[in-house]
Design brief:
15 strands; Alpha-Beta Plaits; about 500 residues
Length: about 500
């Protein structure tokens, strides 16, 4: 009998090994089944080259995750689909498993139909990966992609991106395009191989990386929304480490024309904070870009120049079928501008063409994008866990070590975070309030015997909020507070 595929089962539990094997033998008798424990797995996986690996763990087993990382670092198994079967686990363990490279999850108790469906899916995924590898090898020989990284080279990047974006729009698939620019935080040369590995290992197999230049890269993330882009971005920055910072902009693709997408990304990345934050392109960014005189040659400026003046003179504006522009040829910025032309035309205001977009009041065009709001909330939730809580606890402990009689309390919640210091009735009240959209508000007050000594309130954009910003704010407030303590 000849076998079409090889399935490797890895577990330290003999009963589970036999249970999974028996199910697969009955349901997939065309496959070859190999069983190993954790100790032998890495060595034998190199020899048998399986099409699928089923990895079993009991409870939240860290040994399982270590083996998973080892398999992913192995050249023979780094691209093989790995299905995790955790009998008992929590959400954090599952998330960590996906971060380590697991492809799919089986739920407990194990069901035979679920097992076979997941295995078939994994086999198909492995076959698709092999086809992709063959295609990449061919493109590398033609000099279209880099043979080491699989990135599209500079001369072919825009042509390929235009093609895949057009296909995504035709299929009405959610997708995002990001532009990432690498900066050296210390002024020193960074490790380019580390950079390329960080980019490549942070995206999925169906995503595309294309070079703009040696320091700047496009990431096309198919079937992805903005929250998915943020996760990819976090993985990249984590892999690069603190010595290298990134400027980046991202747009969720809708009906914009390709040239507009590329131009707005380049426009936005120049305004992006150079501290590792992600600049999300909004509708307003399209308008702001076309406000620039040096950008008049771009799509929206051309269409505005050709806009008939009669649109402003007629109180009732009706679009004829001849004037209508097909949706796939019109940018999001153009659609907004045409709506504003109609609105102002009906009110009898004839200043729009004279002043173009500058005449539009900021209050009229400002709107909160729901997609961005979701991203802001997710970004802030992550910063609470990784930045706010650790820093507040750190400064509270540090101040208590200097003033042993100090009473310090820290309470972190998604909407209001507070830190209170009290020593000899000299108090520091630090409050961080999040409006769940885009703005953080800081309220800082120092009092002595219920008499106010200092008070300050200010706001900060959630995407501008980072480790360095919070540390400066905390250090300034606590230093002021300590000065008052030392005076008593």
């Amino acid at each position: 009998m000849s076998y079409n595929n090889t399935v490797a089962i890895i577990s330290n539990n003999d009963f589970t090994l036999n249970e999974i094997k028996n199910m697969l033998v009955l349901l997939r008798d065309i496959d070859k089944i190999e069983c190993f424990d954790y100790y032998d797995a890495d060595e034998y996986i190199k020899k048998i080259n399986p099409n699928v690996i089923i990895l079993h763990s009991t409870e939240s087993d860290k040994n399982c995750l270590r083996l998973l990382k080892k398999l992913r670092s192995n050249e023979k198994s780094k691209n093989v689909p790995i299905i995790l079967y955790p009998e008992f686990s929590n959400a954090d363990y599952i998330v960590e498993a996906f971060d380590c490279g697991v492809s799919d999850i089986l739920t407990s108790p194990l069901k035979d139909y679920e097992l076979v469906i997941r295995v078939i899916w994994a086999i198909q995924k492995n076959e698709a990966a092999q086809i992709m590898e063959t295609k990449d090898s061919f493109l590398a020989k033609l000099g279209i992609i880099d043979s080491k990284t699989g990135f599209y080279k500079e001369d072919f990047s825009l042509k390929y991106l235009e093609s895949v974006i057009s296909k995504a729009k035709t299929n009405k698939q959610k997708s995002c395009l990001a532009l990432i620019k690498i900066l050296s935080a210390t002024g020193m040369d960074y490790d380019r191989d580390l950079l390329k590995d960080a980019l490549k290992s942070s995206v999925r197999i169906n995503d595309t990386i294309a070079m703009k230049d040696e320091n700047t890269y496009y990431l096309f993330l198919s079937k992805a929304k903005l929250n998915g882009v943020y996760s990819v971005y976090e993985r990249i920055t984590s892999k690069l480490g603190p010595m290298t910072s990134i400027s980046a902009s991202v747009v969720e693709i809708q009906d914009e024309i390709f040239d507009d997408i590329i131009n707005v990304l380049e426009y936005s990345i120049n305004n992006a904070p150079k501290n590792g934050e992600l600049e999300v392109v909004s509708k307003q960014d399209f308008l702001n870009m076309y406000n620039k005189e040096e950008k008049e040659e771009l799509g929206i400026s051309k269409i505005l120049k050709e806009e008939p003046k009669e649109l402003l003179e007629d109180e009732q504006i009706e679009e004829s079928s001849e004037e209508k522009i097909e949706e796939d040829k019109i940018s999001l910025g153009i659609q907004i501008m045409k709506e504003k032309v109609k609105e102002i035309g009906k009110k009898g205001e004839k200043l729009l063409l004279k002043h173009k977009p500058k005449a539009l009041k900021e209050a009229e065009i400002k709107e909160v994008d729901e997609r961005n709001a979701t991203l802001y909330k997710q970004a802030y939730a992550k910063k609470l866990r990784l930045i706010v809580e650790p820093l507040l606890e750190k400064y509270a402990a540090k101040t208590q070590s200097e003033f042993p009689a100090l009473d310090a309390n820290v309470n972190v919640t998604p909407t209001i975070t507070v830190m209170n210091f009290d020593k000899d009735d000299v108090k520091l009240d630090f409050e961080l309030v999040y409006d769940e959209v885009k703005t953080l508000k800081f309220n800082i007050k120092i009092t002595a015997l219920n008499t106010e000594l200092e008070e300050d309130s200010f706001e900060l954009d959630v995407m501008d909020f980072n480790h360095q910003a919070l540390e400066v704010i905390l250090k300034t407030a606590i230093d002021e507070y300590k000065n008052y303590l030392l005076e008593n």
